[in-house]
C-alpha cells in the first residue's frame, strides 16, 4: 500500500512536469490529477498503529491444537505475542517478534485465566443462552402456526372483498350503460323532431317565396298588399336547437386510491416502511414504479420487497491492489479495473486457501491509460475506454479490439441491454454524456456541465426502466489534486439522455450537498441505485426517482467502488478493520 502512495506522488510529479509542454498535455495533466485524487483519496497512508499489521510479514498458520511452532518445527510454542495475537516459540521471540517483546505473555501463566474464561463462557452458554434460544425457537414455531392461519384468513377476506367490489362495479356499469341507452334514445327523438320542424319551415318559406316572386311580376296592388300582410303574419324564426348535453361521464384520475378505499384498509406494523423513508428490520418496501419518469410503454404498478435487518456478509476476500471500478459477472466472478496501472483482472468469489486472498483468474494489461470498464449485459463481453487514445475497446477472445475513436476524452462508460455504449467524458470547459451505437454512431448527447473542469465519474443503466444514472464530479475551487475541491452528485437520465433527477444526498440524516460524496453508482434488479460514498465511508440505497431509502453499510475505515451482481449480491472494495484492503460480498434484500 505504501508503494501505491509513493507511486501516487511520483505520478503527480511526472504530470506536473509534463503539464508545461503543450496545451494537450496540460489538459491531460488535469484529467490525471482529477482521477488520482478521486481514486486515491480512499487509499491513505495508514497510521502507525495500523502500519505494523500491514507491513509485517505473513506468518505461517499453526493448525488448531498443534503445540509446535509453525516457523520452527522443533520448538514448542510457549509465549503469546499480544501485538500479533499468535503463539510463538523462544526462537520467534528473539527473531521475527523481537520488537514486540513488551507484549509477550507466558502461555503457562495465562492458561488458568483463559481456562476460567472458557468455563465462564460454557456456563453462560449452557445455563442461559441455549435455554433462551430453545424457548425462542419454540415460541416462534407457535407463532408461525398461528400466523399462517391469520394471514390465510386475511387473504380470503381480501378475495371476498375483491369479488364484492367486482359485483358493485358491474352493477354501476349496468346502471351507467342503461342511462346512456336512454339518453341516446331521447337525444335521437329530439334531433329527429327538430329536423322535421326545420324541414316544414323550409317548405313553407320556399312556397311563400315563390308566391311573392309571382306577385312581384304580375300581381295588382291588392295582390302585393295581401302578400306583404301574409309575410308579416308568418313566423320566420327557426325552431330552437334542442339541448342534447343531458349526460356526461368523467374518468376518475385518482382511481387507485379509490379502489384501495373500496377494498379496505391494510394496516401494517410501524417497522414496515415505504420507499423514500428510513426503514428498519424486515421492512416491506414499495419499490420503484414501472411508470418511471420519462419512460413510456409500461403500466403503472409497484414492486414489493423486503430488506434484511442489516446487510449480510456472504464472502470476504483480501485484495491489496487498487480498484477504480468493479464489474461482477453473472456466474459470481468479477472484473476489477485499476486505471493507475492500466490493468483489468478477473477474480473468483472464492478466496485462496489459508491466505484468504482473492484468486486472480485472468489479467489484461493495456498499453495506455485505461479509464473504465463495463460488461455487455447481452453478450457478457468486457468493454473499456482509454482517455489518452480516446478509443473504445471490446475484449474478444481475451484480446482488446479497438471499436472506434471519439472526439472527447472518455472517463467512464456503460454498455446497455440495447447494445449501445454510453460514455462519460472529462474536460476543462465542461463535460458530457454521449450514447453511441456499437459501431460508434452518436445517438444522443447531453451536457452535464457546460463550463468548468470536471468528469463523469461513473455510469450505470437501470435493468427495469432503461434509465441512465451517472456521478457528476465538478471542480469548484483550486486544482484537481485535492479531492475536497470537487462537488459530486447523482444524475438520472431517461433512455434518450433527458435529465430526470438530480440527487445530492436528500433524506440522509445530517447530510448536506457538500457532505455527500458519491464515488460509484450501480443499479440493482429492483431498479434502486446503490451509491458508494467515499467521504462518509457508506453505501447508500436510493430509488430510481431519487428518493433516499436506507444506508446499506457503514465502514469504519475507507470505502471504495461498488458493483452489483445480477442476483443483487453487492461487491464492495473497502478497508477492513484490520487495516487490510479487500472485497466484501453483501446481501441486503430478504429474498
Number of strands: 28
Could you please say which CATH topology of the domain at 304-589 applies here?
Answer: Methylamine Dehydrogenase, Chain H
Largest sheet: 8 strands, antiparallel
Given helix and strand content, the structural type is: alpha+beta
What's the mean pLDDT score? 82
- Gyration radius, to the nearest Å? 38 Å
Q: Please identify which CATH superfamily of the domain at 304-589 we are dealing with.
A: YVTN repeat-like/Quinoprotein amine dehydrogenase
Figure out the total of helices. Answer: 7
Percent of residues in helical segments?
25-40%
Q: What is the overall silhouette?
A: elongated
In CATH, what is the class of the domain at 304-589? Mainly Beta
**CA-to-CA gap between the ends?**
38 Å
Strand content: 25-35%
Low-confidence stretches: 1-30, 39-57, 270-303
CATH architecture level-2 label of the domain at 304-589 = 7 Propeller
Overview of the structural elements:
A hairpin with a 5-residue loop joins strand 22 (518-523) and strand 23 (529-533). The protein has seven helices and 28 strands. 31% of the residues lie in helices and 30% in strands. It is an alpha+beta fold and 591 residues long. The protein has a domain at 304-589: Methylamine Dehydrogenase, Chain H. The protein has helices spanning 2-18, 23-40, 48-55, 90-93, 107-218, 221-233, 255-263; strands at residues 79-81, 86-88, 104-106, 284-286, 304-318, 325-328, 334-338, 343-351, 358-365, 370-375, 382-386, 391-396, 399-405, 409-415, 421-427, 431-436, 442-449, 454-461, 468-475, 486-493, 499-503, 518-523, 529-533, 538-542, 548-554, 559-564, 570-575, 581-589.
Amino acid at each position: 500500500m505504501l508503494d501505491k502512495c509513493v507511486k501516487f506522488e511520483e505520478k503527480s510529479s511526472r504530470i506536473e512536469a509534463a503539464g508545461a509542454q503543450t496545451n494537450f498535455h496540460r489538459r491531460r495533466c488535469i484529467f490525471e490529477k482529477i482521477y488520482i485524487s478521486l481514486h486515491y483519496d480512499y487509499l491513505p497512508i495508514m497510521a502507525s498503529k495500523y502500519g505494523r499489521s500491514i507491513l509485517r510479514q505473513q506468518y505461517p498458520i499453526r493448525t488448531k491444537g498443534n503445540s509446535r511452532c509453525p516457523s520452527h518445527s522443533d520448538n514448542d510454542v510457549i509465549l503469546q505475542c499480544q501485538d500479533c495475537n499468535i503463539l510463538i516459540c523462544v526462537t520467534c521471540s528473539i527473531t521475527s517478534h523481537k520488537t514486540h517483546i513488551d507484549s509477550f505473555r507466558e502461555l503457562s501463566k495465562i492458561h488458568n485465566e483463559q481456562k476460567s474464561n472458557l468455563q465462564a463462557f460454557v456456563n453462560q452458554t449452557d445455563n442461559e443462552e441455549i435455554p433462551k434460544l430453545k424457548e425462542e425457537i419454540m415460541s416462534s414455531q407457535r407463532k408461525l402456526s398461528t400466523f399462517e392461519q391469520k394471514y390465510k384468513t386475511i387473504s380470503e377476506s381480501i378475495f371476498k372483498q375483491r369479488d364484492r367490489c367486482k359485483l358493485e362495479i358491474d352493477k354501476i356499469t349496468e346502471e351507467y350503460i342503461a342511462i346512456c341507452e336512454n339518453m341516446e334514445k331521447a337525444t335521437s327523438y329530439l334531433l329527429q323532431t327538430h329536423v322535421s320542424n326545420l324541414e316544414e319551415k323550409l317548405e313553407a318559406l320556399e312556397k311563400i317565396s315563390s308566391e311573392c316572386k309571382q306577385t312581384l311580376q304580375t300581381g295588382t296592388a291588392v295582390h302585393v298588399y295581401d302578400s306583404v300582410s301574409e309575410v308579416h303574419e308568418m313566423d320566420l324564426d327557426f325552431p330552437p336547437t334542442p339541448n342534447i348535453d343531458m349526460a356526461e361521464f368523467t374518468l376518475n384520475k385518482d382511481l387507485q386510491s379509490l379502489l384501495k378505499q373500496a377494498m379496505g384498509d391494510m394496516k401494517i406494523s410501524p417497522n414496515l416502511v415505504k420507499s423514500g423513508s428510513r426503514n428498519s428490520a424486515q421492512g416491506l418496501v414499495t419499490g420503484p414504479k414501472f411508470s418511471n419518469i420519462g419512460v413510456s410503454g409500461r403500466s403503472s404498478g409497484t414492486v414489493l420487497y423486503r430488506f434484511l435487518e442489516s446487510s449480510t456478509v456472504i464472502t470476504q476476500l483480501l485484495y491489496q491492489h487498487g480498484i477504480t471500478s468493479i464489474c461482477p459477472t453473472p456466474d459470481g466472478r468479477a472484473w476489477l479495473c485499476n486505471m493507475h496501472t492500466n490493468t483489468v483482472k478477473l477474480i473468483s468469489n472464492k478466496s485462496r486457501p489459508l491466505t484468504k486472498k482473492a484468486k486472480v483468474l485472468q489479467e489484461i494489461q493495456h498499453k495506455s491509460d485505461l479509464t473504465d470498464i463495463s460488461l455487455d449485459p447481452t453478450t457478457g463481453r468486457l468493454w473499456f475506454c482509454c482517455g489518452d487514445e480516446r478509443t473504445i475497446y471490446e475484449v474478444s477472445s481475451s484480446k482488446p479490439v479497438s471499436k472506434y475513436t471519439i472526439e472527447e476524452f472518455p472517463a467512464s462508460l456503460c454498455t446497455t441491454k440495447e447494445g449501445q455504449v454510453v460514455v462519460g467524458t472529462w474536460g476543462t470547459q465542461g463535460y458530457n454524456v454521449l450514447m453511441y451505437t456499437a459501431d460508434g454512431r452518436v445517438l444522443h448527447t447531453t451536457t452535464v456541465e457546460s463550463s468548468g473542469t470536471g468528469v463523469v465519474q461513473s455510469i450505470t443503466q437501470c435493468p427495469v426502466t432503461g434509465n441512465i444514472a451517472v456521478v457528476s464530479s465538478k471542480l469548484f475551487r483550486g486544482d484537481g489534486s485535492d479531492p475536497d475541491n470537487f462537488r459530486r452528485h447523482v444524475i438520472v437520465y431517461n433512455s434518450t439522455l433527458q435529465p430526470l433527477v438530480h440527487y445530492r444526498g436528500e433524506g440522509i440524516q445530517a447530510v448536506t450537498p457538500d457532505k455527500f460524496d458519491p464515488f460509484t453508482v450501480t443499479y440493482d434488479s429492483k431498479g434502486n441505485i446503490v451509491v458508494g460514498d467515499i467521504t462518509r465511508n457508506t453505501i447508500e440505497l436510493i430509488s430510481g426517482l431519487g428518493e433516499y431509502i436506507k444506508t446499506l453499510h457503514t465502514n469504519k475505515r475507507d470505502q471504495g467502488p461498488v458493483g452489483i451482481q445480477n442476483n443483487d449480491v453487492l461487491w464492495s472494495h473497502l478497508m477492513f478493520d484490520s487495516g487490510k484492503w479487500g472485497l466484501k460480498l453483501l446481501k441486503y434484500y430478504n429474498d
